[in-house]
Structures are given as structure tokens and as C-alpha cells.
Amino acid sequence: GQQVMQIPQYQHVQEGEDFTTYCNSSTTLSNIQWYKQRPGGHPVFLIQLVKSGEVKKQKRLTFQFGEAKKNSSLHITATQTTDVGTYFCAGRTGGANNLFFGTGTRLTVIP
Amino acid sequence: GAVVSQHPSWVICKSGTSVKIECRSLDFQATTMFWYRQFPKQSLMLMATSNEGSKATYEQGVEKDKFLINHASLTLSTLTVTSAHPEDSSFYICSARPRRVNYEQYFGPGTRLTVT
User: Given a cut of 80, is residue A61 above it in pLDDT?
Assistant: First the structure.
């Protein structure tokens, strides 16, 4: 079955440091989405990437979709305490309706 | 906009009983709703996809007779955990996809089920 892995599983950073999480799929994805889940909360949609090699930015967040459409990354520049949470990638294959979530990366930002 | 509610937010039940969880899209119509289950500090696992007016599509390993899903209208889907056991204790989250948007999903706040 389809597997979507993320590394690292946990990351502790000092406030102001950068942070990157990587997402790898066992199969080629038609698109990939990123979500953020705060502790005790529910996932909130951040962005979707569709094209091979696509790069999108949202303020301090940079999202990339790999050329082979099997991996993706999320990079946060100069982390803030508000960035705390678990970041999930979620991929979709072909014309499938459903998303398969990655294993998540839990980010802790130390003030 | 794009608010999804779930009810109840938490529930405790005894083994052998059934529990119904509701998922509603409050300000949009959702042709597709998804049900996920999340164990503590773990990822979301898709259980099933439901389309309004048709039978739900269950993921491999999910018992459809145990987790009954009904998507009776464009704003409501229900998940019923039948004959619940302690191993069914988990965080159940639904998401809904708006009719006019083909990729974004909005998640409900989740329901924490504890089976004693």
C-alpha cells in the first residue's frame, strides 16, 4: 500500500532558527498538500502543490514538490513560537479522491 | 467560512455499546466527507470516504460493519462505532470538501472516544 514518510519525527529548535521537514512517498503523487496541527487541535490546510518541481512561499514558509513528484519539503525560516505544532504532508495519487497523510513532524520552538 | 463541526467533542462509553459521531459542514455543501482516526502522537489514518447519497468507500483493514458511515445530506455525515471495544478508543476526525473546490479539505475539531 501507499506509504508517506516524514523526517524528522521530532525537531526542537531555538526561536529564530530555521526548520525543514521532508516528505517521501513510495509512489508518484498527483499532488501533495501540507497541514499544520497545533497541540490538541485539528489539521489546518496550508497549501497544495501540483506541478513537478513546484515551489510556493507563504511568508516564512517555503514548500517544494520534487521533480519526480515523490517527495516534498517544508522549510520555515526564522521560527517563532507560534510555529509550534505537527506538520503533516498528505498525498493523493492519480484521480483518487482521498489523501494519505504522512507520519508528521512535531516541531517544538524554544523561546 | 468553511467551518466543519463535530458532535460530540468527546464521549465515554461502555464496551458493547454503540456511539454515533456527527460531522457537519456549517457554511458550505460538501459532496465528499472523509473520516480519519488518529492515535496519540501519530498521524491521521483515513478510514473511509463518503459521498452524499452513496455508500462509503472503506480503506483496507477498516471493518465497514463496525464503522457505519452515512452521508445523508450535503452537510451531514455520521460515523457510528458499533459494539465498541477499548481498542476503538481514539480521536476521530472528519473532513469535508466543498462542492466547488476540488482539492481543499476542511477538518472538524475531532471527537475523542474512550471505551471503558
Answer: yes
In this predicted structure, the answer to whether residue A95 has a pLDDT above a threshold of 70 is no
Q: How far is CA B65 from CA A75, B69, B80, B82, in A?
A: 42, 9, 10, 8
Q: What is the per-residue pLDDT for A28? A: 92
Q: Which residues contact A82 (CB under 8 A, 6 or more apart)?
A: none
DSSP lists the bridge partners of residue A100 as: A91
CA distance A100 to chain B (A): 7
Q: Is B1 on the interface with A (CB under 8 A)?
A: no
**Which residues in chain B are contacts of A106 at CB distance < 8 A?**
41
Average confidence score pLDDT of chain A: 92
B110 touching chain A per CB within 8 A: yes
